[in-house]
Structures are given as C-alpha cells and as structure tokens.
Amino acid sequence: MKEKKPIKLNDEQLMLDASQVADIYHQLTLELFDQVIDRIKERGSASLDDNPYIWQLEKMNEMGLLNEDNVKLISDRSGIAEEQLRHVIQNEGYKIYKDTKQQLLEATGGGGFAGNSIIQTNLAAYVNQAMGDIDNLINTTLPMSVRKVYQSIVQESVAKVVTGLTTSDKAISDTVMKWAKKGFYGFTDSQGKHWKADTYARQVIKSTAWRVYREVRMAPAEELGIDTFYYHKKATAREMCAPLQHQIVTTGVARTEKGERILALSDYGYGYAWGCQGINCTHEMTPYIPGANYKPDLPDELRDLTPEQAIENANAQAKQRALERSIRQSKEFLHVAEKLGDQELIDKYKSKVRIQQGAMRDYLKQHPFLHRDYAREKYYDDPYTKAKKEVRLREEQKKARELATKRAELDKAVKNGKIVSVSGVTVGHTPPGKAGEPNSVVQHNATNGDVLGRTYYDDRGYKVKDIHFTNHKQPDKHPYGKKGEHVHDFVFDDDGKFISRTTRELTNNEREENLDILWRY
C-alpha cells in the first residue's frame, strides 16, 4: 500500500508581487500630484495677490512644461510596472504550474514533468490583455486628467482671490486639497461609477493575478483528470466559503471517495460573483488526490474555528482594512499639506493620523486574531525603486547565465580541438592581403588589441574567405549575426586574378572554430 503524502501548499508570493506592481501605479499618481503642486507653488513674475489674471496666464503657459514632466514620469513608471507584471505572471505563474504538476505526478506515479506551451501562451495573453487596458488609461486618460486638475486648481484659486473670499495662500491650499481628495479621474463604468486611474489599474492587476493563480493551480489537475481540491482555511471567510474551509471539494459532483467526504463547489455558488471563488475571494484551492494525499495540520488558532466565527472574523477584518485605508489616506493628505507648507493643514492631518492610529490599536485589542500590518498604513514604500532594482538584478543574472553557457561552449570547443589555429597576425587598418601561406589563417587585430577578423588561405595560398567580427560601423550593409559578424567568400583563378566576392552569415562550423572570439557576443 502506497504511503499517503501531504499536499504542498504554494505561498501567496505571486499575489504579493502583483500587488507591488499595482503600488507602482498608485505611487505614480502621488508623484504626478506632487508635480502639479510644484508648478502651482513655483514663483513667477506675477503674484496671485497683486495680479491674479497675469498669474493665471503664466500658470496656464506652463502647462506644456508640466505635460512634458508628466509624460516622462509616466513612461518611467509604467515601463518598469509592465516589465514586473510580465515577470510575475509569465515566470512566477508558470513556476507555480510546474511545481503543482510535478507534485501531482509524484503523488500519482505519473512520470516526469513535460513543458506546456499552451499555458505559457495563455499567461502571455493575460498580461497583454491587462496591459492593454492599463496602457490606454495611464498613457492617454491620465495625462489629460492631470492637465484638467492643474487647470481647475489655477482657475478656482484665482476665482477665490478675485472675489475676496480668502488669501492667495489659503486659496491655493484649499483648492489643492480639494483636488487631492478627488484624485485623477480614470473612467466611468457601465454602472456610472467613477474610477480613479490608479484604483482601476489595481483592480485590473488584482483580477488578472487571481485568474492566473487559479488557472496555474487547476490546469495541472485537469490535465491529469483530477477534479478534487483542498480548500484552504483562514481566520476569515465569506458566507459561501466558510463551510468549505479545510474540506475536500470538487468541480464535479459531491461524493465520498476512498472514505473521504467531497463537497461540490457548485452547491456553494461556484461560478457566481457572490459565491465561493467569486469576486474578491482570496481562498486558495490545492489539487488533492483522495487516498494519496492527506490534509495539512492546522495551527492552534484555526483548528477549532467554526464557519460562523470565520464569517464574523471576515467582517472584523474588513473594518480593519477600512481603518488602514483611512490612515494611509490621511498620511497622503499630510504629505500634500507639507508640500504646500500650510501649517494649519499639517497640524490637522497629523492629529487625524494620531487619532486613527489610536483607533486601530483599540480595535486590534478587541479582535486579537487580527494583526497590525504597518505596510498597509504607509504613505508609500517607493515600490518603483524596488522594482527597478529587481529588474536590473534579473537582467544581470540573465547575462551571467548566458555568459556562463557561452564560456562552457568555448571550453568544450577548446578541449575538442575545434578552435582554428592562427598562424600569423596583422595589426592596424590594413587587413591581410590576397596571398599568404597555403592552408593558413591570419588574424587581423586593431591597434587596441581587438580582433577584427580572420583571413583563410587555400592550398594555393590565395584568400578563400575573410571572417569579420564587426559590421564595420555599417549595420545596414552588414545585417548579419548578433553584432554584424559576417563572411566574405573570395574566388581567385590560378594566376591570382580576382573573380568574385560574396557576403553571407557564418556557418555553425565557422562559429564553433571562432568561439574564442564569438563567445562574448
């Protein structure tokens, strides 16, 4: 009898990484608003107090400069965000698929893992669809929204000063704060709901990540004819998920198999927004084979948790999330107040943050199962810089792997005697001539030591080919290889008269015998 194996639970790294990508878009909107404030506060030749309409004209004339700054910032941030999202979905997503498939193969004795190009294609398609939605919003709608906010702040500030309602500083502070609370408009959905640009981007990323996560977990099971899963248990659960926690569930019909009771997901609203695995449900399902796997042990705090308590806890956690959002938002408004230099607003939001943090401490004392996550309360943690470093590190690691592979190929070629034997070297601008030692190879070096090419002579001593390792700074005329490396084939008659010269790519054999130069390419 086969020994049962525990199921291996994948962590939530994919979702955490995707959330950090969404944070980049939120950071982008905060930085765009900072640029708006900087332009508004920048001193010009006219004063808002003394010449409000001249001040307005100057500020409107600066809108082009603001737009240039915005386009550059958006390009920098969205470029890194897209690269990160592609890595998270296509690389991390496929890794989860591969690990899950391998675990199932081990449990069923089904052999070794084979790649799945369909899954890889699907993952790429998910990213393309998500980025298509986000790019249109971020690159087109967002810059227009920033200009509109800037224009509104200028016009409303002037109106308040002209009518004598307030001082210029107060007019700017109040108007800027009003638009800080509104945020940058993204779009209006079919229900008439107005979405902020960064909120919509976060929703697209979150829904894409969950869709991917579920597919890469369930696809291996479907491929192996498995329709049973372990439903993870958490301290919090919505009404349709609570009864399923720490149970074995199926996408098929309810049944008992190998002595284990299996619940049907369809009985709990599966496939509907309000049901299990519906909108905003973060419950994981891990493929499970009755008779081959056993459920994981639960920690003490979850072991005796009832479905009713899980539902109650979910409501309590939702209130904690609301408190976290309010603290984070107050910190964002405090940042705006500090940018404005408005002491009254600074004091107001500092006090508000302290009160909200006190409310959070009291709330957590009442609900000890909750823990405080300070990261959720931060103004922001500069996710862009962190992501940029990760992208650079991946690029360096990729180059190092490629270099190691090429070095190994070179070592193998040297060991097998494949590298061509060079009998002479010429240095300088002039390459080796048409005649040389029969069956020899002469190397052509630049004065700085770089190898420019190699000339091959036939058994008559006439040049038969030149292998050049550069494109001669003419990429349009030498569109070959990785860096323009190419071959010129020569034909001379027995009297040494030139007949023809043609240009082509290097053959695999020519590449191998010149690997001592080409391995770096």
From TrEMBL:
Coiled coil: 386-413
Region described as Disordered: spans on this chain: 424-445
Pfam family, one: Phage_min_cap2
Source organism, top-level taxon: Bacteria
InterPro entries in the record: Phage_A118_VSP1 (IPR009319)
GO molecular function term, any single one: structural molecule activity
Keyword terms, alphabetized: Coiled coil
Protein name: Phage minor capsid protein
The species this protein was found in: Streptococcus oralis
